[in-house]
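Could you show me just one protein sequence together with its fold in token form as a worked example?
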Amino acid sequence: MPSPESIPVIFTPDNEPYLGRELLFHLDQIISAALEQSARKAPMTRGHELTELQRMASQVIAQSLSIALSIRELIRQGYLFGGHVLLRSLVERQTILLYLHLHPAEIQRWERGWHSGDAPGLAKMLDEIQKKLDGDLTVRGKDLTKAMNGLLHAKPESAWWSLVQLDVNAVGHTASKTLNRPELCDALCVVSRLIGNTSVEQFGV
């Protein structure tokens, strides 16, 4: 375990703590591809009148890319707990994109403000997407969102995500970088790869 004195204040791309992990490499590829596609498509959103769905997609896809880049930078700096907290925001935006793509009539709710009580929650959207695509509900949305909700709302089960090895005999909750939990990095990369699942092309842009 490195001593605090040997840990850089700021990591760079050539010395970041989880450099070389396979899932992180794949995440980098997906983010790069998504940014390239966004750069090609963005000018088209400014060249003609957009539908309600296209306006929504232009906003939410850009936000998703920004969050994905934020998560990537948090991984680089070793702030894995913060990255996992941000995941729900990324997952929710990607879910909204797919849900409204499959249920275009629901765009009216989004236009009204997507208020709680009017719009479906994240778990409900995941259920509806699964039924629409698979014709069945094999995994309930509430089970898929449980860990993310626990992290976001500081529930007791969120404790596992902030634990670090302090020495050979002790663990504690980090208030800073997490440099010795590669499984947390891998989990973050797997879910963050959702950024590659939605394209503006689905909305006719």
Residues 18-200 form one domain. Residues 52-77 form the longest helix (26 residues). The chain has one domain: 18-200. The first strand starts at residue 163 and ends at 167.
